[in-house]
């Protein structure tokens, strides 16, 4: 057994399933919903790149540095998995601490603002803190991705700092990376905030 084994997490709006090559067509349709790969400040694979991105994430899973998920809507009638809406991961896994980053996340444009993102984050954070025993969970995003920065802050994460000229984007430009984290003692308040947001949506 490794620190993180593939598993399925079920919430109120979404189901997080272990990423599988069979999810390819659904992920392509999800990315086409809003043509997300055209947003220059994100790293959403285009339809032509999707198979390669699935292989990349599964290779990192084999190396023990990532646990990738496919995000599906929860079918309200059956309680089972509905259509594919995106991807998310545990990444930069540090089993010794233990510590994880939640990232490489994107959702179809039509479900943004519907509660799928806070539900997904609640599932991943609860598992990280309450099952894996992480003392901290990290988030990173592009300095210019204001939507992502605001969403991370709404979770209750605190900004640790900015890594200047930290990495290169797909077009070769240097990006500044904003680092956020939630600590174990902050988790009960963050959990309460996420549950409140989901309760308000019904």
Overall outline: globular
Biggest beta sheet attributes? 8 strands, mixed
CATH class: Alpha Beta
Overall pLDDT: 93
Computed CA radius of gyration, to the nearest angstrom:
16 Å
Number of strands: 8
Order of the strands making up the biggest sheet: 1-2-3-4-5-6-8-7
Number of domains: 1
Question: Helical region count?
Answer: 5
> Mind telling me the CATH superfamily name?
Gcn5-related N-acetyltransferase (GNAT)
Pfam families: Acetyltransf_3 (PF13302)
Organism: Pseudarthrobacter chlorophenolicus (strain ATCC 700700 / DSM 12829 / CIP 107037 / JCM 12360 / KCTC 9906 / NCIMB 13794 / A6)
GO molecular function: acyltransferase activity, transferring groups other than amino-acyl groups
Protein name: GCN5-related N-acetyltransferase
Topology diagram in text:
Layout: E1 9-10, E2 14-18, H1 24-32, H2 50-63, E3 66-74, E4 81-94, E5 99-107, H3 116-131, E6 136-142, H4 146-155, E7 158-168, E8 174-183, H5 187-201
Parallel strand pairs: 5-6
Antiparallel strand pairs: 1-2, 2-3, 3-4, 4-5, 6-8, 7-8
Organism: Pseudarthrobacter chlorophenolicus (strain ATCC 700700 / DSM 12829 / CIP 107037 / JCM 12360 / KCTC 9906 / NCIMB 13794 / A6) (Arthrobacter chlorophenolicus)
Protein name: GCN5-related N-acetyltransferase
GO molecular function: acyltransferase activity, transferring groups other than amino-acyl groups
């Amino acid at each position: 057994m490794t620190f993180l084994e593939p598993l399925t997490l079920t919430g109120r709006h979404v189901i997080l399933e272990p990423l599988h090559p069979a999810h390819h067509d659904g992920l392509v349709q999800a990315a086409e919903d809003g043509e997300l790969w055209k947003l220059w400040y994100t790293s959403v694979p285009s339809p032509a790149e999707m198979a390669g991105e699935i292989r990349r994430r599964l290779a990192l899973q084999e190396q023990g540095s990532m646990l990738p998920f496919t995000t599906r809507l929860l079918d309200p009638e059956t309680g089972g998995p509905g259509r594919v809406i995106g991807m998310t991961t545990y990444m930069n896994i540090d089993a010794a601490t233990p510590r994880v980053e939640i990232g490489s996340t994107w959702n179809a444009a039509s479900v943004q603002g519907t509660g799928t993102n806070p539900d997904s984050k609640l599932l991943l954070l609860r598992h990280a803190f309450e099952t894996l025993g992480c003392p901290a969970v990290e988030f990173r995003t592009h300095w210019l991705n204001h939507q992502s920065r605001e969403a991370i802050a709404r979770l209750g994460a605190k900004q640790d700092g900015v890594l200047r000229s930290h990495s290169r984007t797909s077009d070769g430009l240097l990006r500044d990376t904003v680092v956020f984290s939630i600590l174990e003692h902050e988790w009960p308040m963050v959990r309460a905030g996420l549950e409140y947001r989901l309760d308000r949506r019904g």
